[in-house]
C-alpha cells in the first residue's frame, strides 16, 4: 500500500506507529511541523503527541509554516503541549490561550522565520515532522499540499519524522519547487524573474539517515470555509476592478495587471471571483495560498499561471482539482514560503497585494491582527511581506461590523501592523481611496469621502477637522484618539449616538 | 576655469546664469533636485528660484534624494515655492510649514520614491536640477558628494539643469556607481552580492540634448553638525558593542560583524566611534550616509570598505577627506539611494541597521518621526528600508529627554513607523533589550528591565502589570495608553509626580 511511496528501501524499517514516532518528541524540545493555511500539516503525530501529553504532561515550542487544520492546534492547546508557538495560527482555542498569556505566541512576517533560524536567532528545531506524498530513491521528501517552512525545518532539524499521507494523490509529486537561499556572506540573488520559473528541486534534500521515523496516515486536509460573495464583498470587488480598469486605461498597468497576491478570506475571494467577469486576460498569481478562486480563474481561461506555497480548497473543489490535477499541473507551482513571500521577489515582480484589514485609520495605518488593540486574532501572516514591497498594496474590509456597532475606519487604529508608508489603496463596500502620492491630510480626506460608512462619516469628519485646527503633519486629538475603541470596550458600541 | 568640467564641447553653449536657468522652472511644475543628507544638492538654481518667487509667486512640487543643505529648504519655504515636498527633510522652517499644513509633505521610504516614479504612481519631474563635478564627453552627468535620486530624476525628467560646482574636488569622479533596475515585467536581479561590488556606470547616462542649462557654481556643502559622544551616547555604544561581542562569542556573527548601516545623528555616530576601540576587524559599511566616523574607522584600520549614497562631513573632516580622497577612493562607492537602501540587497547582505528612535513602547513599536503623535520631525528616511530586512534591526535612543520631563519608553507610542515585527534590539544608556524570538509580554519585561530610566520604571511596570490582568496577546489599558503623551501636551511633563 505504501511501498511505492517510500522509494528508498532502506527506510522501510523506519515505518512505525504515530505513537512510537511521537515518543521521539521530548519535553522542552523545539519542533518544526509542516502545514500552511490548513494544508499539508502533519496529522497523525501531533494528534498522538496530544494524546500522550494528556497522560504524561510535556511542553514544546512549536513552529509551523502557518495555520494547521484538523483541529490540531486545538488538541495541542487543550493537552497543554504548547509553551511557545510561531509564526501564525487561526484556531479559536489556541487564540484564547494566546490572549490569556498561557501560550507565548511570536507573530512573524511569514518570510522571516527560516531566515532567523538560518542565522541562529531562533532556536533550531530538534525534530521536524513533515507530511509527504512520497520519499524518493535518494531519501528526499516530497511535500503534499503545502511547502511552507517544511524544507528548512527538515534541513535544520537533527531528526525528521515523515508522515506519508495516503489520502493525498500521489501525482502531487512534481508540483513543488524547493529553493533554499545560500548562506551569507556569499549569498547570491534568487534567480526567479518570472512567476512560472522553477529554480529548485522537486523534493526536500536531506540525508536519508536523518529520517528517524515514517508514519503512514490517511486523512484529508480540512476543507476551506470561505463564504461566497455577498453584496458587500461584491461591491468591494467591483470598486477594485473598476480601479484596475482605470490603471489599464491610463497605461499604468497592462491588461494582465501583473502578478496577483490575495490573502485568505471571503473578501479576497470575492475580489478574485470578480476577475472572472472582468476584461483582463492572461492573469498570473504569485501568492501564498491558492484557493477555490484560483481554479475558478483557470477554468474561466483567465489565469495563465499560479505560484503559491499551499493549496486550500473547499470540500466541493478538493475532489475536482486533485482528482484532475494533470489538467492544472503545468500551470502550478508550490514554493517554500520564504520564496513565495520573499521581499526580493515581491519587489522584482511588482506584485499587486490584496489583504484584509481588521480596521484602518484616517491616515491609512492598518491593524491586521489585534481586536481592540490587545487581543490577537490570527497573526500578520504574509500581509507585511507583500504590502511593503508590492507594486500596489491594497487593503480591503467591510466599512462596519457587528451590525453597525463597529466602524472599520477609526480616528486612530488601536494597533499598527502596516504603517501609512506601506498602504496604497483602501477599499470598503462604500468605495476606494487611492492614497498614492498623498500627504496625511489628503489621505484623510480621500478615506473619509470614499471608505467610511455614512453612519460614521460625520463623526469622523468632525474629529479630523477639529484635529486639523490643532496642527501637525498628522493631526490628532490624543485625548479622543482611542475613544471609539474605549466606547466599544465599555458599551459594545463605538459611538453611543449611532 | 570650467571648460575641463564640461567635456562635451557642444554643451558649452548651454552655460547660463542661475537666474536664467531657474526661469525654466514654471509655476505648477514637478521638480527633482539632487541632494541627500545635505550633501550634493544643487545650490545656485534653487536659491535663484526662491529669489524670483519673492517677486513673482510660483509653486512647485519638489522631490529630492533626502535633505538639502545651505538653508535651501528654508529659503524655498519662506518664498512660498513649495506646494508639495518629498521624501525627507530636516529644516526647521519647512518643518513648521509641514506641521501647519501649508506644505504637503509625503514621508516615504527612501528606496521607494523612484520605484513609484518608474511605475507612474507619482508624477514624473518636468525638470531635474542636478549638481555635478563634470559632464563627460558623452554628455553624462558625474554627481558630487551624493547620488541620492539624481540618476532617476535626470532619466525621467524632460529637461535637466546641471550645476557644475567648482567647490567640489574634480577627483570625486570615479566614486559613483550608477545602477538602475530594469523595467518590469522583465526585471532581473540586482547583481550586487558584496558591499564592494561595482555594478553600474560612473556617470548618469542621459541623452546630451536633454541638458537644457548648465550653471557654474562655487559653494561648499553645509558641514555636518554631529555632536561628539557624551556619557549617555557612549553608554549606548558600549551596550551595543558588548552585545556584538556576545554574538561573535556564540558564533552568531563573525568578527567583522557583517555590513553596518548607521543613521544620521549623534547616537549612531557614537556607536560607530565606539567600534574604533573594539576588537572587531575588517568591518564594512553598506549605509546611506557616510559620516566622519566612516573615515575615523578607515584611519584606525578597522574598516575595509564603505558603500553609501552620500558623504556628509564636519568642517574639520571635509578638507582632510576630500583633500586626500585618493587615500580612500578604492575603498569607497556612492550609489543611488534605491540601491543603497534596496530591500533585495539589504536582505541578501544581512545588514546590521542602527537607527535612532524618537520613542518606543513596551512592546517594541518605534516612533521615528512624529513628536506627540502629530508633529513631523524629519521623516522616516531609510530606517524602514533597513529595519524590515536587516539581519539585526537596532534602534537607539536616550531613555529620557528634556531633563527628565519625557520618557523615551512609553506605554504606547503616539505614532508607529516600525512595528514590533521589525524591531530586534533596543538600546538606551540604561541597557539593551534583545527581543528576538520573544512574545509581546516577554518583550515588555525585557524592555522594562533593561531600557527604561529608573524614574519611569515603576510607573511603566505598574501599567504593564495592570494591563496583563486584563488579558490579551499585547496587553494594554486603552483608557491610559496615551496618558503620558496627553500629560506632556497639557503640563510639559509625562508624569506629574516625577
TrEMBL record, chains A, B:
InterPro entries: AcetylCoA_hyd_C, AcetylCoA_hyd_C_sf, ActCoA_hydro, ActCoA_hydro_N, NagB/RpiA_transferase-like, Succinate_CoA_transferase
UniProt keyword annotations, A-Z: Transferase
Gene3D superfamilies assigned to the protein according to its UniProt record, in alphabetical order: 4-hydroxybutyrate coenzyme like domains (3.30.750.70), Acetyl-CoA hydrolase/transferase C-terminal domain (3.40.1080.20), Glutaconate Coenzyme A-transferase (3.40.1080.10)
Domain named Acetyl-CoA hydrolase/transferase N-terminal: residues: 12-215
GO terms classed as biological process: acetate metabolic process; acetyl-CoA metabolic process
Transferase listed as a keyword: yes
Pfam family, one: AcetylCoA_hydro
Chain segments annotated as transmembrane: none
Superkingdom to which the source organism belongs: Bacteria
Active-site residue numbers: 288
Residues reported in the UniProt entry to bind CoA: 378, 382, 402
GO molecular-function terms, A-Z: acetate CoA-transferase activity; acetyl-CoA hydrolase activity
Residues annotated as domain Acetyl-CoA hydrolase/transferase C-terminal: 321-463
NCBIfam families: YgfH_subfam
Family: Belongs to the acetyl-CoA hydrolase/transferase family.
Protein name: Propionyl-CoA--succinate CoA transferase
Organism: Phytopseudomonas daroniae
Amino acid at each position: 500500500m505504501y511501498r511505492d511511496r517510500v522509494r528508498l528501501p532502506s527506510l522501510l524499517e523506519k515505518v512505525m506507529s504515530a505513537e512510537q514516532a511521537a515518543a521521539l518528541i521530548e519535553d522542552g524540545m523545539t519542533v518544526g511541523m509542516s502545514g500552511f493555511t490548513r494544508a499539508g500539516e502533519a496529522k497523525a503525530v501531533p494528534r498522538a503527541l496530544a494524546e500522550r501529553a494528556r497522560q504524561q504532561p510535556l511542553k514544546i515550542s512549536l513552529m509551523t509554516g502557518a495555520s494547521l487544520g484538523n483541529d490540531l492546534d486545538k488538541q495541542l492547546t487543550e493537552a497543554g503541549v504548547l509553551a511557545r508557538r510561531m509564526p501564525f495560527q487561526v484556531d479559536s482555542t489556541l487564540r484564547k490561550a494566546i490572549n490569556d498569556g498561557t501560550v507565548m505566541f511570536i507573530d512573524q512576517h511569514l518570510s522571516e522565520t527560516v531566515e532567523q533560524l538560518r542565522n541562529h536567532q531562533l532556536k533550531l528545531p530538534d525534530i521536524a515532522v513533515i507530511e509527504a506524498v512520497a520519499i524518493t530513491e535518494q531519501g528526499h521528501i516530497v511535500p503534499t499540499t503545502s511547502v511552507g517552512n517544511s524544507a528548512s525545518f527538515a534541513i535544520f532539524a537533527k531528526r525528521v519524522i515523515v508522515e506519508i499521507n495516503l489520502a493525498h494523490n500521489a501525482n502531487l509529486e512534481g508540483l513543488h519547487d524547493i529553493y533554499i537561499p545560500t548562506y551569507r556572506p556569499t549569498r547570491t540573488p534568487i534567480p526567479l524573474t518570472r512567476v512560472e520559473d522553477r529554480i529548485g528541486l522537486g523534493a526536500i534534500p536531506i540525508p536519508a539517515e536523518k529520517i528517524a521515523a515514517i508514519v503512514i496516515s490517511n486523512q484529508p486536509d480540512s476543507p476551506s470555509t470561505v463564504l461566497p460573495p455577498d453584496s458587500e464583498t461584491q461591491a468591494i470587488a467591483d470598486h477594485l476592478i473598476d480601479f484596475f480598469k482605470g490603471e489599464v486605461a491610463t497605461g499604468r498597468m497592462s491588461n494582465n495587471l501583473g502578478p496577483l497576491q490575495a490573502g485568505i478570506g471571503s473578501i479576497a475571494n470575492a475580489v478574485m471571483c470578480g476577475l472572472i467577469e472582468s476584461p483582463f486576460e492572461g492573469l498570473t498569481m504569485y501568492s501564498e495560498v491558492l484557493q477555490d478562486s484560483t481554479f475558478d480563474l483557470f477554468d474561466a481561461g483567465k489565469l495563465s499561471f499560479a505560484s503559491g506555497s499551499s493549496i486550500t480548497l473547499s470540500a466541493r473543489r478538493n475532489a475536482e482539482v486533485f482528482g484532475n490535477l494533470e489538467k492544472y499541473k503545468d500551470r502550478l507551482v508550490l514554493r517554500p514560503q520564504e520564496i513565495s513571500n520573499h521581499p526580493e521577489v515581491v519587489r522584482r515582480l511588482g506584485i499587486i497585494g490584496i489583504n484584509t484589514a481588521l480596521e484602518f485609520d484616517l491616515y491609512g495605518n492598518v491593524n491586521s491582527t489585534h481586536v481592540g488593540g490587545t487581543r490577537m486574532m490570527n497573526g500578520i501572516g504574509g500581509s507585511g511581506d507583500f504590502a511593503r514591497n508590492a507594486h500596489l498594496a491594497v487593503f480591503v474590509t467591510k466599512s462596519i461590523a457587528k451590525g453597525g456597532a463597529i466602524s472599520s475606519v477609526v480616528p486612530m487604529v488601536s494597533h499598527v501592523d502596516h504603517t501609512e508608508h506601506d498602504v496604497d489603496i483602501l477599499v470598503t463596500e462604500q468605495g476606494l481611496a487611492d492614497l498614492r502620492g498623498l500627504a496625511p491630510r489628503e489621505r484623510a480626506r480621500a478615506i473619509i469621502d470614499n471608505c467610511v460608512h455614512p453612519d460614521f462619516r460625520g463623526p469622523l469628519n468632525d474629529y479630523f477637522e477639529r484635529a486639523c485646527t490643532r496642527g501637525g503633519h498628522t493631526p490628532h486629538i490624543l485625548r479622543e484618539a482611542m475613544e471609539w475603541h474605549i466606547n466599544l470596550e465599555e458599551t459594545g458600541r463605538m459611538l453611543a449616538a449611532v
